[in-house]
Amino acid sequence: MTTQQGLRARKKQQTRQQISDRATELFLARGFDQVTIAEVAAAADVSKMTVTNYFPRKEDLALDLGEIYIDQLASIVRERAPGQSALAALRHACLAAIAAQDQLIGFSGEPFARMIADSPALTARGRDLHDARQLALADALAAETGAPPEDITPRVAAAQIAGVQRVLFNEIMRRTLAGESNAEIAVALTRDAEIAFDTLEPGLGNYAVR
């Protein structure tokens, strides 16, 4: 990449982040459904078209890590260590994310969690992201194991693993909305994650070993 291309890429990322930050501020202050794209554009000092170029869906202004979230589990599987199963890699990553109180797995704080819970549009978009993440994981498992299209094993495995991740995400949201601190939630979720992954171990412990 040339210096000019690098500068252009950084400028685009800065603009994207600026739009997302201003949008989040407005959404938290007034509620997602009460804020328009035009108001976001004005707050970010860009045109409405610029906002929609970066964020075709209004929901993605609030859930701006959606693409990263969708690929998260698949990426962990693709990058697992030699001799490691997909389940072991995902367990390790999940526990590490809980310990780090990673916002990507749900540690977003009460105001943000409330904003999502109060918006049917954001709640629906969240379900879409969970579904897309499961499909991405199934594709990764199929590629890593060389499974043919008619083999449902990767899809079944992905449904179980992504289902556990979804339950843990929802539990973080529930506890956050109930007023628990991130530290308290991390303690409880560490226990819950161990229970959840132990449940999957008999069926998937030896599946997709690199």
Automatic annotation (TrEMBL):
Coiled coil segments of this chain: none
GO molecular function: DNA-binding transcription factor activity; transcription cis-regulatory region binding
Residue ranges of every copy of the HTH tetR-type domain listed in the record: 13-73
InterPro entries associated with the record: Homeodomain-like_sf, HTH-type_TetR-like_transc_reg, HTH_TetR
Keywords from the named record: DNA-binding, Transcription, Transcription regulation
DNA-binding region: 36-55
Name of protein: TetR family transcriptional regulator
Lineage: Bacteria, Bacillati, Actinomycetota, Actinomycetes, Mycobacteriales
